[in-house]
Structure formats: structure tokens, C-alpha cells
Amino acid sequence: MNKEQKNLLIKEVLHMGEMASGAALTVPVYRLKGQGSGPGVYIQANMHGAEVQGNAVIYQLLELLQGLTLQGDITLVPYANPVGCNHKNGEYTLGRFDPITGVNWNRMYHFNEQQIPGFAEQHQESSIEVIEQAFRELLLGDIADKLDHNVFGLTTGQRIAYQLQKMAHKADLVLDLHTGPISSKHLYCPEYAIDSARYFDIPHTIVIPNSFDGAMDEATFCPWWTLQQTFGRLGRELDFNKESFTVELGSQEQIDLDVAYQDALSILSYLQYKGVIADGNFQPQAMTRYACYLKDYKAFYSPMGGMVDYLATFGEPLAAGEPIARILRMDNYGDGDALHYLSLDRPVIPILHFASASVNQGTELYKVFCEYFEL
Question: DSSP secondary-structure letter at 78?
């Protein structure tokens, strides 16, 4: 515990659902109260079962935040998906998809765009303070209605997602902590918030459209962005200063507390930039930051089955024609080519690759930046 504790830490246990035995599914929720003059923050980790590094980052954040002066409230939720993080098969954690429905756990959040035009018409003359309060109440009421008044019930995944989103809607800044299979650090950033990407110590940014596709980051920034655009069409320019990011912290199935400390400092750099932290000197590291648009973030699928030796170095530009991997085919040894080198016809930056060396034809080998640029 930080010996120079300034902020009271409140711990709650949130009931998320029930298992067949009647045992409760619960998650811990940690809250730190700020002075009320800065943005509120919501941070969650481990929505996908194997993506555990975010829990270590939340630990380091809790250690650091208790010794700082906070302008805004901060809520932190490790183990956000109690089903996913306990979904083991042998040595591996399989909790990326709901095992009952097959749906990605991070594609079950809610956004009702149809309610925005009427709200904006109703509040054309309201102050921005009144608009923010009323719109947040609208979002929270919508989620509460989904949770409490759904005649036909909810899936386990929807119940978990909506309860997390209910907490996130109370914040102004939302960080959803994830990892890849075998991966470098990278950031999913809405196009309108690209300037903020420079305040994370993350060298690679995927710029996503300002639109909804079911994920937590989109479910929390899209309502505000859509409202802002709607007011703009009505002739009123407003900036609600709401941002959400998916923060990819490296590789799954492992934690590193020392790296997590550096990740926590990176997040504090962003929070200080946004006015959440009043003291300290958290600054982004000097580094070359590359970005590409989501449409140029490409998957490279294996042209054959075999055993893969992944050759490309994460985060470094790879020239066209340079080998990205080689595939060993022992069934061909003696009467064919046992070793096959793979390359791409354009320059790319490799970001992550498949977790196993054993692949079928059509397995996603790499995700890469194409048409990348410096931030």
C-alpha cells in the first residue's frame, strides 16, 4: 500500500449473475473519490479470459493513485468477466467467446442511436452542463431498462456487459485493458481522439471509425460523439470531451508486474493530460509512434498447414518481400520442399501473431499495419 495515501479507497463486490449451482458470479470494484473538478474515469480489465495483464496494471494503478491528488473520480474493475477468466481447458484459458452463444464477450454492449435526434431537439437551448447531465441520465436509464425490464431475459454475456457499461457511462474517460495472442502493445483509438494517442507510451495506434460495432470503447464514446454531431447539424457546436480506448498491453496468458508498472505510468500520463491528476509529473516517453486506419490493419492467413517459425519483429517496419515467417512441412521432406518462406508484397509493421506454432491452412498468422504513418 502506498504509505503517503491521500485518497480513500472504497471496495465493493458486484453481483454479475449466477451459475447453474446457484453460486454467484462476482467482480471486485475499486473506487477513488476525486475533488470533483476533473473528468471521471472508468478502467476495466480481463473481459477476455486469457487477457490478464490488465489486472496487474490495475494493481499498480491502485498503488500509485492513492498517493496522488485526484481531480476526478476513478473506478477500476479487474476480472471484469468472471466467466471468461475461469474458462480453462488444460493449460489454456479459452474465455474469448461466450461458450453458450459463441459471441465475442467484447461485442455485447449496447447503443441506441435512435434516441439521440429527439434528445438533441429537446435540448437545443439547454446549457452544456444540463445537456451532459440529462444525456448521462438517458444512457443510464436505457441500460437499467435493458437489465431490469427485459421480458425475455438476457444472456450471461449481455448481463455482464450491461452491468459494466452502467459503471462506464458514469465516467468521461474509459479505458478497456486487453492483450493480443503474442503481441506488441497497441491502442484502438477513435478517429476524433487521435491527438490523445500521443500521451500513451504505446508505439502503435489503430485509428477506428467513430461508429459502433459492439465493443466497450465504442459503446461509451459513440453516444457522445453522435450527440455532438447531431447538435452540429442543428447549428450548435459542442465538445463534450468524452474519450474511450481499447488498450492492448502485449501478450495473453501472462502477467509482468514490472512491465505493468510502466503501463500504469503510461495511463497516468494520459490522465494527467486530461486533467484527472493534479500533481505528479507524468509525461509520455519520447518514441516513434506509428498509426494506421482500421481498414489498413490486415490479417495475413497461412497459405498452408504446417509448423510456423515466426520471423518478423514486432513493431518494426518490414520491407516488401522480406520473410515474415517460414513453415516447416516434414511430410514433404525427402520428396519435396520441407521449408517454405512467406513474405508480403508491400511494406508492413507486424503487430501480433498466432499463439501456436501449429497451424492449419487459413489460420490467421499475423495482424499487420499497412499504409501506416507516424503520429
Answer: S
